[in-house]
């Protein structure tokens, strides 16, 4: 079983890294990009036999407590 | 239109950040995680009316030349 976590800056938060990437891309000729958001992507491999619901609850708690900063970041968690 | 890029370290490359996250999660009680891979996630908003195929080609080039380090990183690009 695998869990995928996407962590992105909240839309209301200034994203200087995204702005820098957007400017660099524009200078390289990719001018048709109107916005870039840079986030983190985590892939977690789970021990076989883990129970899906309990894993989801436990990973949501890990996201809130440790993996993300809920003040400035949003996350999306999926288990497959 | 939106492009999503997942950049992950190649499987053969040591991922110390992933290892650190895995150890930290284990100490927080999430011991059933066997591996963690930490990568980057980019969301690109494209100007309306952009042509899909040309955009894909141009973004693949941007990924290879600028956004990723092809020696140690893999990427996945999707446009939707």
In short:
Two copies of one chain form a homodimer. Chain A is α+β, with helices and mostly antiparallel strands and 80 residues long.
Q: How would you sum up this structure, described in words?
A:
2 copies of one chain form a homodimer. Chain A has one domain (2-79): Phosphoribosylformylglycinamidine synthase subunit PurS (Mth169, Chain: A, 2-Layer Sandwich), CATH 3.30.1280. Helix content of chain A is 35%, strand content 36%. Chain A contains 2 helices and 3 strands; from the N terminus they run βαβαβ. The first copy, chain A, has helices spanning 16-27, 52-67; strands at 2-9, 33-46, 73-79. A 3-stranded antiparallel beta sheet of chain A has the order 2-1-3. The longest helix of chain A is centred in the last third of the chain and has 16 residues, at 52-67. Chain A binds chain B through residues 6-8, 18, 21, 24-25, 28-30, 32-47, 50, 55, 58-59, 62, 65-67, and chain B through 6-8, 18, 21, 24-25, 28-30, 32-47, 50, 55, 58-59, 62, 65-67. β2 of chain A pairs antiparallel with β2 of chain B, so a sheet runs across the interface.
Essential attributes:
Mth169, Chain: A; about 35% strand
Kindly, what is the distance between the CA atoms of the first and last residues of chain A, rounded to a whole number of angstroms? 6 Å
State the CATH topology of chain A: Mth169, Chain: A
CATH class value of chain A: Alpha Beta
Q: What CATH architecture of chain A do you see?
A: 2-Layer Sandwich
Provide the spatial order of strands within the biggest beta sheet of chain A.
2-1-3
CATH superfamily of chain A: Phosphoribosylformylglycinamidine synthase subunit PurS
Number of helices of chain A: 2
What is the residue-averaged pLDDT of chain A?
A: 94
Strand content of chain A: 35-45%
Structural class of chain A: alpha+beta
List segments of chain A where confidence is low: pLDDT < 50 over at least 5 consecutive residues: none
* Element pattern of chain A in H and E: EHEHE
Q: How many individual β-strands of chain A?
A: 3
3D shape of chain A: elongated
């Amino acid at each position: 079983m695998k869990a995928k976590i996407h962590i992105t800056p909240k839309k209301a938060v200034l994203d200087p890294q995204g702005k820098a990437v957007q400017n660099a891309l524009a200078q390289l000729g990719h001018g048709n990009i109107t916005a870039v958001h840079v986030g983190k992507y985590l892939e977690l491999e789970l021990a076989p036999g883990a129970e899906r619901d309990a894993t989801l609850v436990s990973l949501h708690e890990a996201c809130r407590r440790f993996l993300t900063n809920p003040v400035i970041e949003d996350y999306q968690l999926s288990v497959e």
